[in-house]
Design brief:
With 73 residues, the chain is mainly alpha-helical. It has 2 helices and no strands.
Amino acid sequence: MLYLQDGGMLFLLWMQFSIAAFIIVQIFDHFWADRREDEIEHSPETSTTQLKIWLIIKLTVYFVMAILMVIKP
C-alpha cells in the first residue's frame, strides 16, 4: 500500500528511517533482549541493568519514530 500511494511514501526519507529503525530494534530485541530475559528468569540474581538500559533505548527509538510520523512533510 505504501508503494502504490501517489508519491510513494516508501521513498520518503523519514519513512525509510522509521522502517529501518523498527527492524533493527526488533532484531536486536529478539536476539539479545530475549536471551537476557531468559537468563534473568532462570537466575534472579543476574543484574537487570543492561536490560533496563535497552528498554529505555527501545522506548526512545519508538518515541522518535512517532515524532517523525507526526511532523512528517
